[in-house]
Amino acid sequence: MGRIDSLIAEMTLAEKLGQLTMTAADYAVTGPLITPLSEDAIRSGTIGNLLNLYGVEATRRIQKIAVEESRLHIPLLLGFDAIHGQRTVFPIPLAEAGLFDPVAWEATARVAAEECAGDGLHMTFAPMLDVSRDPRWGRIAEGPGEDPFVGSAIARAKIRGFQSSSLADVGAVAACAKHYVAYGAVTAGREYASTDMSEGMLREVYLPPFRAAVEAGVASIMPAFTDLNGVPLTASVFLLQEVLRGELGFEGVIVSDYHAVAELLNHGVAGDLAEAAALALKAGVDIDMMSDAYRLGLPVALERNLVTMDDIDAAVRRVLSLKERLDLFQDPYRRGRADTGTTAQSRALARDVGARSLVLLKNDRSTLPLAARKIALIGPLADAGSEMRGPWGGAGRPEDCVGVLQGLTEAGLDVRHAPGVPIEENDVSGLAAALALCADADAIILCLGEALLMSGEAASRAHLGLPGRQQDLADAVFEKAAGKPVIVVLFSGRPLAVTEVVSRADAVLAAWFPGCEAGHAIADVLTGKVSPSGRTPVSWPRAVGQIPIFFGERPSGRPFNPADHFTSHYSDVENTPLFPFGHGLTYGDFKLSNLRIEPGDPLTVKVDVANHGAHAAEETVFLFLNQKKPGVTRPLLELKGFGKIALGPADQGTVTFTLPAPTGRAELFVGPNADFRSMLSLSL
Fold first, then answer.
1. How far apart are CA 159 and CA 348, in angstroms?
2. Three-class SS of residue 261?
3. Which of 81, 147, 257, 288 is labelled catalytic?
4. Span 604-659, pLDDT tens digits
5. CB 316 within 8 A of CB 20
6. 257 labelled catalytic
């Protein structure tokens, strides 16, 4: 009999349920504070997993109680949300998605994993793989954007980075793909709301990143809080047992979201805690996070014959197997080191990735890179280093984040700064001081956008314009500029509806939330040290009323025709996005030519790329397919590949894709974004 079977045979019911329970540890600025009750529960074996505790001293102290003072000496599993970094804060995931670079995606996850392991952690609740086409939803900031192909590529790269070649590696942590599934399609973009869709849409758009995660060997998966077509994911036998475990072949641990098992009562599908616990366990949820439903409800559920001991033992076996794969039984203290924090190497990676994630949305008359040295730096986000972390900043310290003012000053620019207005408050008392800076400046940089907590969980927004009085500040600066170039740097966790600002600015840079090296990364791009290469991973709407807006729409029987009123269109705004998926300018001038196919299965698709500009730059090229199938309407465009190429002035090269040979009629499109006007095409 192996270790796990021996342990299960010896466990009491309370000890088994302890392995199925995860609870949060309180954490204060002065250090970890584990209450005596929690310590007693760990000592008694009735809590087997913790979250939100990190640092070698804290984690070793609490692990020692589990390993040396409990009856069965079973180590704790310790988890934390390192969504875009642990100590080193990288750009938010939506910004990182715009890199279209699996090597970089894996590299940032690898650093995050090593820092998590250094902090004594074994699991991170990442990556977040929820495809979303609704920027009203705050958690779009944490995900891959609007496309399932991109989400799948990110899933593979992040899981490689987090889990290394083996979970037993000292620098590896168990990844947790979340939130399974379709959480990004909540009604009206409102957090925690219901989701309703066809199974075809589910399988075509929202399931593929999780399929890719399972194929990549992800150790754990977290179901969404929400219901799908009336069935909460936490209790969905179809989606968790039949699809995830059966069809996709997932054999790892399923961990509930925070308090989600008890929230089955709010959903109305359970009458009491015992019923809620039974529904979740029968659906395949192994670990109950924070609701204590398993500890309190499953004994009652057993008495009522709602579950069996075999159901409980199966879940316990999966949890213990994960602990064994992490090598916790062999050496429970192997993760954790005293020198946690950022390093020169991790900061350099954050600066590089931060700069490459910035998206140059507009650059009229080659305003950028900056020729001017005397800068008026205006706006509430111009000197706001702590905001640069964005939501879910891990264990990164606000004081370690570089703001724009610091970055530009250290780049050697002559900067005069005034915030003008706060981010959200209705206060214009600083407006005059900000406008006064414009008179003596060669160029004006306006730093506008959201506060970090305006994106992320529970941060849905119905209005996507600039908060507070920032629009008034922008209007006043445009009037005061008197022909001087105005560069707008937008900070946000989502596309913002800022059509007027975009139309009046000379240049616009979507900075998202770039992480701890934000100021340096932005300075690198504005001064031309780095050519911008980020692309929009979501379509950028002209108005909120266009949402959801995405490139993968199906064709209409009455496609838009300006000569015919009775076609699909808005009467008050264009159908097209302000910026399409994949949009992003560089300091180069790229041209695509000679699209060609080498037959076979898979097909080899090649396109030549030339840089006719005066600056070295990096171009991103996208491969789309439009496939015709009898009786089934397919999307106008489906992303099938992306590639990057760096070229100096007057240089040229070739980007190569491979594509499974499609059946039936199909058309191939290659271009720098999802706008048909920018593409080359071939019929297959």
1. 22
2. coil
3. 257
4. 999 999 999 999 999 999 999 999 887 889 999 999 999 999 999 999 999 999 99
5. yes
6. yes
